[in-house]
């Protein structure tokens, strides 16, 4: 009798425990607390899904970050505007696989009931088509389409390792710029060495203003770069610190042609001599420090980089030159709804490179390669205010200068931009904001940009 009673009591205990567990889970789901998973984790423990998301966002983003000199940057500016957000977001699929397996995808957030794509981005698997607009003034408006594929990994590791991703992409713009290419990102071992490989065929058309040349300043000529690009990057994390070291290799082979200017025979003869076959091969060692709380829309932390992009004949390049780069991005919250960002960039040409490889001022509202020279300095600040639920308003301003050397610094005017925009928190679980920016460069050049995450990506 006592044995039967014990069995009944055990069954009742299990039913009570199950009931309590259901009540706790139900109440946790109803709690409406605005927690940023990148600045504080909701649940402790080694199997925390948010910890794995945070780690993967940092690693994938660093692997794909912009690492090209000026000529390759322009050629691939549209390519990476689509590739970076797509790969960085969708690579989180593996990290949430256990937590969301079998759950129906929803575009309504469980916390505030607003439109949200977190569920879709985290739960989608397999091949995914992605469409993205292009709004760069230098190349004209256009669009890009990509197909992304996530590989299954057979080896299991104790810690989280980002998935391997491959993709194909094509783009076209209104000024007849186009490009097609593919990429593969791969992680070797247990999250220690990461690589990025890109093969891209760009046919780029962009105006050239002559690096402060008095004639071309007001009479730019259109440059056509019909090229092939191969890019390989490796990066290694230093122990468990926030420092990363790595290097990249770029092979840029192009046919350079310039459009002639009607009615200017003398200048056209000079232009024809600039039509050449050009080959640039570079290696770029770099060291990176990254303490941002979110790689998409950071609210606090620092992201800085010191690198030198070296082109040499012994590598197969036509020219010997180097470009030293210093990048600093700082994010400081002023209050619970007000956030500031600060950007300082420096690019310095060492030696003589091809005319299209020189550094240029990169600011919203300023067309790419509009202001070029041996040395470029840029400073910009952006402020965002969250005025209603998921909606924020943005204001920004910045200055830049491209100059030959210290003796000519005061002879060149500063380039400036001012603008505003808005943001909507598109994916709450990942802290991703998206929206539009409207900028006026030098009080005359207007441009708008579709922003995913941050305009400084």
Describe, in short, the structure shown.
The chain is of the alpha+beta class.
Give an overview in words.
This protein has 457 residues and is an alpha+beta fold. It is 20% helix and 43% strand. It has one domain: membrane protein fhac: a member of the omp85/tpsb transporter family (Porin). The protein has a 16-stranded antiparallel beta sheet. Helix 2 packs antiparallel against helix 3. It is globular, with a radius of gyration of 25 Å.
Topology:
Layout: H1 2-30, H2 49-64, H3 70-90, H4 97-100, H5 118-123, E1 128-134, E2 142-150, E3 165-173, E4 178-188, E5 193-208, H6 214-218, E6 221-237, E7 243-258, H7 265-273, E8 276-290, E9 301-311, E10 321-333, E11 338-351, E12 375-388, E13 391-403, E14 415-427, E15 432-441, E16 445-452
Q: Which features would summarize this protein structure in a list?
A:
457 residues; alpha+beta; 16 strands; globular
* Anisotropy-based shape: globular
Mean pLDDT: 78
Q: Tell me the strand percentage band.
A: 35-45%
Q: What is the string of SSEs from the N terminus onward?
A: HHHHHEEEEEHEEHEEEEEEEEE
CATH architecture assignment name: Beta Barrel
CATH topology: Porin
Structural category: alpha+beta
Structure annotation, total helices? 7
Uncertain ranges = 1-14, 23-101
**Overall domain count:** 1
Radius of gyration: 25 Å
Q: What is the rounded distance between the termini?
A: 72 Å
Helix content: 10-25%
**What is the name of the CATH class?**
Mainly Beta
Tell me about the biggest sheet? Answer: 16 strands, antiparallel
């Amino acid at each position: 009798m006592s044995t039967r009673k014990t069995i009944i009591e055990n069954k009742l205990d299990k039913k009570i425990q199950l009931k309590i567990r259901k009540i706790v889970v139900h109440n946790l789901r109803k709690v409406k607390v605005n927690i940023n998973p990148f600045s504080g984790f909701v649940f402790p423990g080694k199997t925390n899904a948010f910890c794995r998301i945070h780690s993967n966002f940092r690693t994938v983003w660093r692997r794909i970050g912009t690492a090209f000199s000026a000529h390759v940057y322009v050629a691939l500016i549209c390519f990476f505007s689509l590739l970076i957000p797509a790969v960085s977001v969708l690579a989180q699929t593996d990290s949430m696989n256990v937590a969301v397996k079998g759950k129906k995808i929803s575009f309504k957030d469980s916390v505030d009931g607003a439109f949200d794509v977190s569920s879709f981005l985290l739960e989608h698997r397999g091949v995914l088509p992605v469409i993205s607009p292009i709004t760069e003034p230098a190349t004209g408006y256009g669009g890009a389409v990509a197909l992304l594929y996530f590989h299954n990994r057979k080896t299991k590791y104790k810690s989280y390792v980002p998935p391997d991703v491959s993709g194909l992409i094509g783009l076209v713009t209104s000024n007849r710029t186009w490009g097609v290419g593919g990429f593969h990102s791969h992680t070797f071992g247990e999250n220690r060495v990461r690589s990025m490989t890109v093969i891209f065929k760009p046919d780029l058309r962009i105006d050239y203003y002559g690096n402060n040349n008095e004639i071309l300043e007001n009479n730019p000529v259109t440059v056509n770069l019909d090229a092939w690009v191969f890019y390989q990057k490796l990066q290694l994390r230093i122990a468990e610190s926030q420092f990363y070291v790595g290097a990249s290799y770029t092979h840029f082979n192009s046919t350079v042609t310039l459009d002639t200017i009607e009615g200017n025979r003398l200048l056209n003869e000079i232009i024809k001599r600039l039509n050449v076959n050009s080959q640039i091969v570079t290696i770029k060692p770099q060291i990176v420090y990254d303490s941002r709380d979110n790689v998409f829309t950071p609210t606090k932390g620092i992201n800085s980089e010191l690198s030198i992009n070296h082109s040499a004949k012994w590598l197969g390049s036509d020219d010997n030159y180097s470009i030293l780069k210093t990048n600093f991005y700082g994010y400081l919250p002023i209050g619970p709804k007000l956030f500031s960002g600060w950007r300082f960039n420096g690019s310095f040409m060492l030696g003589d490179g091809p005319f299209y490889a020189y550094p240029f001022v990169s600011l919203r509202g300023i067309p790419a390669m509009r202001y070029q020279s041996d040395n470029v300095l840029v400073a910009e600040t952006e402020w965002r205010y969250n005025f209603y639920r998921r909606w924020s308003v943005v204001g920004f301003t910045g200055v830049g200068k491209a100059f030959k050397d210290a003796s000519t610094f005061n002879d060149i005017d500063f380039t400036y931009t001012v603008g505003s925009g808005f943001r909507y928190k598109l994916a709450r679980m990942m802290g991703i904001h998206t929206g539009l920016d409207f900028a006026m460069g030098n009080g005359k050049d207007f441009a708008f940009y579709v922003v995913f995450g941050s305009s400084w990506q």
